Amino acid sequence: MDAMGIDRAHVVGNSMGGRVAIELGLEHPERVSSLALLSPAVAFVRREWHPLVRVLRPELGLLPHSLGRARIEAQFWSLFADRDLVDPSVADIAVDEFERIYRSAGARLAFLTSARNIYLETPFGKGGFYPRLAQLAPPAMFVWSSHDKLIPPGFQRHVERWLPSAEQIRLDGCGHVPQVERPERTNGLLERFLARIDALGSRDRGLAAA
Fold first, then answer.
1. 77 located within any domain
2. Alpha-carbon distance 166 to 183, whole Å?
3. Could you tell me if 172 and 146 are in contact, meaning their C-beta atoms sit under 8 angstroms apart?
4. What's 34's domain CATH number?
């Protein structure tokens, strides 16, 4: 944003990008006009794997290894409720790009560190994610999906409790990546939300995507 001369922007983020957007809104609210969060990676409440994840250090990701194309492709398709709505060429591009990036030791370390920290963060109590979320100042819209296996829509009730001012929307028959599986519906929601914020006097100067 600084490099592009953007003082303030609407920020849209999906999954881990949604978490980046939330943290940006918490740390630098003066730079954020609004937040549109698509299946954002919020704090997990049930953490059965917590002891194991604490032991597994992300630095292990520095060791050369591959997840295998078949495994990456299976994980990609698991993100969607109806794979017939997804162009197969999109899958090829996404899998190829993930494979390319994952070959970098630095990229593996960054990805595993971020995922580990999100999973281990305390959801409640002093310094917990949801009490921090309650301090979020920019207007926010959360979009959840009924068939999201990664960030189930049940997280909505925790966000509603701690941030009642936020708009909550649930998409039926959709998975973790609504902008791919339901692009027209998702874009319509974004356009309506951003237009409403602008009509209320937002001072944004652009659109950023996380």
1. no
2. 22
3. yes
4. 3.40.50.1820
Distance CA 137, CA 165 (A): 10
pLDDT per residue as tens digits for the range 29-50 = 999 999 999 999 999 987 776 7
The residue ranges of DSSP E strands in the chain, in sequence order, are: 9-14, 32-38, 140-145, 167-171, 207-209
> How many other C-beta atoms can be found within 10 angstroms of the C-beta atom of residue 70?
9
Q: How far apart are the C-alpha atoms of 65 and 85, rounded to whole Å?
A: 32
Tell me how many domains the chain contains: 1
Model-level pTM? Answer: 0.89
Residues in Cβ contact with 63 at an 8 Å cutoff, skipping those fewer than 6 apart: none
Domain that holds residue 18: 1-43+136-210
Q: Are 144 and 171 in contact (CB under 8 A)?
A: yes
Side chain identity, residue 97 = E
Strand, coil or helix: 22:
helix
